[in-house]
Structure formats: structure tokens, C-alpha cells
Amino acid sequence: MKNLRWSWAGLVASLLVLVTATSADAQRSSRYRGLSNDENIGNERAPRRMIDNPTAGMLGRGSFDTELRAFPDGGMLGILQIGLTKNWMVGIAYGGTNIIAAHDPQWNPHMQFLTRLQLIGETMALPGLAVGYEDIGFGPWIDSLDRFDIKSKGFYAVVSKAYRGTSFTSSLHGGVNYSRERADKDDDVDFFFGSDLRFDNNIGFVVEYDLGLNDDRKHHSLGKGEGYLNAGARWTVLERVLMEFNLKDILTNRRGSNTIGRELRLIYVESF
Question: What value does the CA radius of gyration of the chain take, rounded to a whole number of Å?
């Protein structure tokens, strides 16, 4: 299983490098446009998150974004992020399952929090670097394992680099994390990476891969050892409103799963 997982990782990494290399060629013939937190509202087209995994992107000072996710089992998750300074943002989240259903809602056991600090801003030559903490997990909360279906990142560090072409922008992201959800006795350090591609016609695409090293114990964890591969399509509906449709766990890594999950995200960005 581990050899298969690393084979998938190598394949996805090769695709991401190919996309980014193409963007880098375009960048040489056009003016560089950094997607850091220098713009008024942090550039709403530059993601602060791939799909489940964070990036080094930041909200600008005095700006915020709200996110609403709809996922299987009647689940919904709301996330609010606020840029407190140029290099520091915080956020909260809350949700549950059976919210859109004919049964009583099953709320998450606690409010979730996040904080992110950008240590190095992105330049033409160097990627941006951010560190943070978040206990935002995705999917249903599982009482018996004291964890979310997709574990929260916990403590993490992530780098992001954007390249501007003549009619599109692409970014490459990679990070390492240590989750505090360890009741399943799988507390390994984990790695994740991904890329997004954003066209000037308001259409974009994103792919991410989490190796799932902290979710692959045979008799305790939910993962089978192949990692979590997700992909999505984005549409900037209005200047500050973004809609995204995601395919989750494409490798059907979760034990007992035999189909690809579907999720809808709606994001709104504004400044104070």
C-alpha cells in the first residue's frame, strides 16, 4: 500500500510540476503579479485553501471571507476567516451532519479555530511561507474515534508560489502537518501538496493530494494507505463570490467507501 501511495504521489507531483513549469514560461514574457496579501482584500482569486488543505495565501488587513460547505449525509460547515494584520489571520468554523435532512441535526462537539502567520511573503524568486494551527476537520465527526472523517491539520507549515501567464495564474503548494486527532493511535507527521489554475475568464481548477500518513493504521485508522486525492472546479460568479464543486477521495482511500464523494463550496470575500 505504501508503495502504491508514493506512486500516486509521484504521478500527482509530476502533473503539478508540468502545469507550474508551463506557467513559469508564460511568466518570463509577462509582468509578474504576486498573489500575496499586498492587494486590498488579499486578492479573492488567490486561495487561502486548496480544498481541504491550507496554502500560504493570506487575507489582507481588515478583510474577511466566509465559506459555506455542503457535503454528504446532509452535512454543512461554515468557516469565517479575518485578516487582522498584513501577515496574520484567524478564523472560526462550526457545522454538523443531518442539517439538510429529515432527522435531528448531529452538530460537531465544539467550535473549531484556526490561526495563520505568514513568515515570508512571496516574491518573484521565492515562495511565500506560512505556519499555523487549525482544528478544522472535514466530513462527519466520529465519536468513537474522537476525530473528523478527514482529520484536522493541527500544526502545519506550508509554502506557496504563484506564476502569472498572459491569461491565467497558477500556484503550487506544499506543506507538512501534525494533527492533534490521535485517538486512533496514528500520530505520524503528514505531508500534503497541490496546485490551482485560475483563468481570467473566472474559471479555475484545483487538485490536492494528502499522503494520509497519519490515517493508515490497519486496525485503527479510516484510511487504507493510498492517501486522499481531491479535485475541483471553481467559478467566480461575481467579483467577490466564488463557487466550487469538488470530487473528494478520488482514490476511495476511506475504508468502506466505494464511490467518490461530492461537495459544494460557496465563498464570499469582503473588506471592512
Answer: 18
Please give the DSSP secondary-structure letter assigned to residue 89.
Answer: E
Q: Are 43 and 55 in contact (CB under 8 A)?
A: no
Q: What is the pLDDT of residues 71-101, one digit of tens each?
A: 999 999 999 999 999 999 999 999 999 998 8
**E-strand spans in the chain?**
63-71, 75-85, 88-97, 106-107, 112-120, 128-134, 138-142, 147-150, 154-164, 168-178, 190-199, 203-210, 228-238, 241-248, 261-271
Tell me the one-letter amino acid at 95.
G
Query: What's at 272, amino acid-wise?
Result: F
Spatial CA neighbour of 80 closest among 241, 271, 206, 267: 267
| 271 Cβ neighbours under 8 A, 6+ residues apart | 40, 41, 60, 62, 63, 64
Three-state SS for 14?
A: helix
Digit-coded pLDDT (tens) for 133-145: 999 999 999 998 8
Q: Does this model's pTM top 0.85? A: no
